[in-house]
Amino acid sequence: MRSLSLVLLCSLGVVSAAAAQSSAPLTLTKTIALKSVTGRFDHFAFDPATNRLFVAATGNHSVEIVNINDGEVTERITGLGKPHGLAWIEGKLFVADGTLAALKIYSGSPLKLVASLPLSDDADDMVYDPGTKLLYVGHGGSSAAVPGRVAVVNTESSALVANLPTSAHPEALEIDPEGKRIFANIADSGEIAVIDGATHTITTTWKLARAKDNVPMAYDSDDHALIIGCRTPPRAVSLDSISGKEISDLPSAAGADDLFYEPSSHRAYLITGTGTIDVYQVAPDKSLKSLGSVKTGPGAKTGLLVPSLHSLFIAVPADGATSAQIRIYNTTP
Fold this sequence. Notes:
Layout: H1 2-22, E1 27-34, E2 44-47, E3 52-57, E4 62-67, E5 72-77, E6 83-89, E7 92-97, E8 102-107, E9 112-118, E10 126-129, E11 134-139, E12 148-154, E13 159-166, E14 170-176, E15 181-186, E16 191-196, E17 201-207, E18 212-220, E19 225-232, E20 234-240, E21 246-251, E22 256-262, E23 267-272, E24 276-282, E25 288-295, E26 303-306, E27 311-316, E28 324-330
Antiparallel strand pairs: 1-28, 2-3, 3-4, 4-5, 6-7, 7-8, 8-9, 10-11, 11-12, 12-13, 14-15, 15-16, 16-17, 18-19, 19-20, 20-21, 22-23, 23-24, 24-25, 26-27, 27-28
């Protein structure tokens, strides 16, 4: 009788573990080692035609170009200061360099520098409007002497179209292509600047009430919701993207740094400096529901969601004897 009970208990334990794994909001499917990369990471870009992942290895002063099929680093762009924001647009790689205060543009095979557009210190995140072929780049605001700006760049001519002043450094940008608006997170002032994509003017700003230090953001076009990651206190906050009204907020891990929304699952993925991904369900009424958290690795705070692949890529810095990694998580519920 005793042995039968033990078998039953073990069986129940196995079932319980399997059930817990299947209910996890993300599943790790692959790990790619970046053996020669040191320091922290920032943003990513992706080329679906070639399955290449572009990784801003900020602490390594490089952009690593990884074939996600075989996990090989196929190219490396060196000589950079602090690469932050990346965008892959019609055969060109756009790199916002915070130290060199420039937008670097690369093209060809292998990639070579074809243009450099001067910006200001802390050139950072960017968002692209395929309808107008304009790229919006946050920069400046690192000190009182250097005002915050959002540069508007024509990606075909590499010309600066406009340079909009903001109250402080723009941390993250998102686009509403239907409403032809661009949203900019201004963390130091705890507000969101709303830019008219036609006139290139800031039409309004929304001051956050539930939390501040709003660094990353994501946009849910189906429900017209903005999801904001805040650091003080650590919260995920949803807003009505038409009125700016705050709808819902839930606790998050500390150090919110990157955030993505997946339309097919109506889920938001908040990547934090604690090496945690907090997952939220976004309801049609813009309310948030926590679906749990997934531990990644120390210092893993940025990544990229590729909805067509149902994949979330996370950069994990080197830690002691463990080399830097790209971890790929499946997002299928």
